[in-house]
Amino acid sequence: MAGSVQAFGGSGTFKHGVHPPERKHFSEDMPIEVVPTPQQVLLPMLQHVGAPSIPVVKPKDVVAFGDMVCKSGGFVSAPVHAPIAGKVLKSAVTTLPNGRHVQVLPIKAEGDQLEGQALKREILGGDWSLEDVTDDREAITQAIANAGIVGLGGAAFPTHVKYTPNDKKPVDTVLINGCECEPYLTPDYRVMLEAAPAIVAGATLAGRAAGARDIIIAVEDNKPEAIKTLQEAAQGSDVKIVVVKTKYPQGSEKQLIMAVLKREVPLGGLPLDVGVAVSNVGTTVAIARAVLRGKPMTHRVVSVTGSGIRQPKNLLVPVGIAYSELIAFCGGLTENAARIISGGPMMGFAFANLNAPVTKGTSAVTVLVADDVRKADETACIRCGRCVDACPMNLVPTKIALASRAKDVNLAQAYNIMACFECGSCAFTCPASIPLVQLIRTGKALVVASQRK
Amino acid sequence: MTENVQTMASETKPAAPVIHVSPSPHLSNQALTTQRIMLDVVIGLVPTVLMALYVFRLYAVKQLAICVISCLAAEALFTRMRGRALPLADCSALVTGLIIALSLPGPAPWYVGLIASFVAIGIGKTIFGGVGMNIFNPAMVGRAFVMIAFASALAAAGYQDATSAVDAVTQATPLDTFKQTGLSTPLSVLFFGLTNGSLGETSALACLIGGLYLCIRRTASWEIPAGVILSVAVLGGIANLANPHSGWTVLHHLLSGALLFGAFFIATDPVSSPLTPKGKFIFGVGIGAIIMLLRLFSGYPEGVMFAVLLMNALTPLINRWTIPRPLGGQK
């Protein structure tokens, strides 16, 4: 069921944006491999947007694969499940790549583990037929909530919240995001190639939960193989595949909704406000698994990629595994590795604590070398307006950065500073190498601080 | 920016690379620099420079040499006085020098270009804080200064030297001829540029070729020349309707004087023009309107320089008026 974007009112793209180098070749042809079970995982109690999860196990408790170890801490929260069999240790604190200090629950591997191809089949393979499956909306949403599913695209927003029936804000369209516009990243691409039936099943279930009229999977036109595979998998289903233009940040949900549906999510609002629920393709696989098999989200696919990695790969990894183990499994760093990033190079976090654990929101480890990140010294803004032409939110980044630098909160707000989602298009483009995103981030902190007073 | 440098623990084999931590984004478009933008302007000016050399011969060589050397020297001198690193590599002083030279009459004495250049870089740019900080187009500041200080050298008569060996310089400029006698110059002559005038302005063709290059490279924003040309066309058309027997048509307005040179190369200076597409268009329309006001009603035959300077002054205000509506903002 190939669908054109125009049928849904969109033009297949959004205004502005940039074309960074794609650099997917490092890992795009590497089939998903399973990482050996680590000796220990550190399960963060806050790996999503919302309230922290609450432990339900004590040190020395023995847990099996898939057991719940933390319960949800509220409506906007999610439970955490054991990705390996083992013994619970005393909780500790660690720093995640995003700079957050979080409580972690360590589990030491003990006993028999589900490993290798059996694990891959368990997570991504098997039968995804939807015959005899419930179409009760509440039941599907409950299964999603119980499975601890959060958005795998990066923001890690608890998924059940989006699909909870809401009479005031009905959802007419479920939009599944297969754009993967960040350079280097290929986890979604590999999942689309290797688990298309699961994506279609999950998308269908998400559509049922939301009571949506249209279920659309959007893929950028630089992934023809993924489009073909999904189209075949979607034969005979209600899911439509649409192709959108390759442009960064196409995978940002506001931009994607604009490209496909020509609807504007209001500032400070959610896709729900315009009748849309957006989920990443990887998330839909987890939805299918939760609803069809009652299994929780314990693993995810992560790309380990970039010219600073000896053997780039796509890995199926347990949540809580240390970044250092992923890097070691991929042959280690090259000697000229210069920057290790959790996520992609446009929005990811550079970090140095390689003992930090992978969370549900970790899409990749991108390692860049000095040549990739070389940047000229900052020079004066010549007001060329390239940042204005690049900003997908239609802002004036240089003015916001100037206001931030001058600590002028009012001017920054007059230029709509809070609408910025830090995609980095402006700083990528800036011919004067001005750290626009960094300045805007500090400006946002000033605005938040001033509102608190 | 501050970067924390941390040598990694030896557990990650084999060597110990030095890992830097810094805020996203971690990639930048390395092909696009301020220097490249300025170099683009120089490339865009090549057809105009060649045409100036062809039409004005040694006059053009002299003015170009004086202004470019003076601007580079002034930049070096003034940045040193401010205790800053020498920014000549960004080529902005080179661009200013070329624009000043191309906006001067060939026969103007040597010290006119020299003084214009030093005023442009010193008062037009450095005292505001150097590149990127100036409110007015530096080249036009320099030119306005010499236009007032050496009124006769830059008045209509200053363009003419009846004894010159260069043909173009023996004639009056087309705009002045029309102002004085009501006689209009054939459009083809204006288009190719075999007339008298400021060095870079005579050939509409050369300005269009270089200007289109700049617009395609997005070094110049097309909204500005579009605004200028549109408003001159509309106001020129109205003037034409009001006085249909005048031989000076809309096309004469568009192809004569510094209009195209100004629209593509002077008004598009990014530093002194607005930031948003809408603001740029308003800026262009304003320049076109002031040009027509001066051409039709003032004692000057031409008004590009004053129009650009006046609209430069309005640029901060235009920026405030044209804050774009963010995606999802209230309509």
- Beta-sheet strand percentage of chain A? 15-25%
Oligomeric nature of the chains: heterodimer
- What structural category arises from helix and sheet content of chain A? alpha/beta
> What's the Cα radius of gyration of chain A?
21 Å
Beta-strand percent range of chain B: under 5%
Mean pLDDT of chain B: 90
Strand order of the largest sheet of chain A: 2-16-15-19-17-18
Number of helical segments of chain B? 15
| Biggest sheet overview of chain B | 2 strands, antiparallel
Outline the low-pLDDT stretches of chain B.
1-14
Main interface: chain pair and counts: A-B, 79 and 54 residues
Overall, the morphology of chain A is globular
Radius of gyration of chain B: 23 Å
Label the overall shape of chain B. globular
Number of strands of chain A: 19
Distance between the termini of chain A: 54 Å
| Biggest sheet details of chain A | 6 strands, mixed
Q: Give me the count of strands of chain B.
A: 2
Notes on the protein architecture:
The complex is a heterodimer of chains A (453) and B (331). In chain A, 29% of the residues lie in helices and 19% in strands. Chain A has 15 helices and 19 strands. In chain A, a hairpin with a 6-residue loop joins strand 17 and strand 18. In chain A, helix 5 packs across helix 6 and helix 12 crosses helix 15. The longest helix of chain A has 17 residues. Chain A is globular and about 60 Å long. Chain A starts with a strand and ends with a helix. The relative contact order of chain A is 0.16. The mean pLDDT of chain A is 94. Chain B has 15 helices and two strands. Chain B has a two-stranded antiparallel ribbon. In chain B, helix 1 packs parallel to helix 3, helix 3 runs parallel beside helix 5 and helix 11 packs antiparallel against helix 13. The N terminus of chain B is likely disordered. The chains are: A alpha/beta (453), B mainly alpha (331).
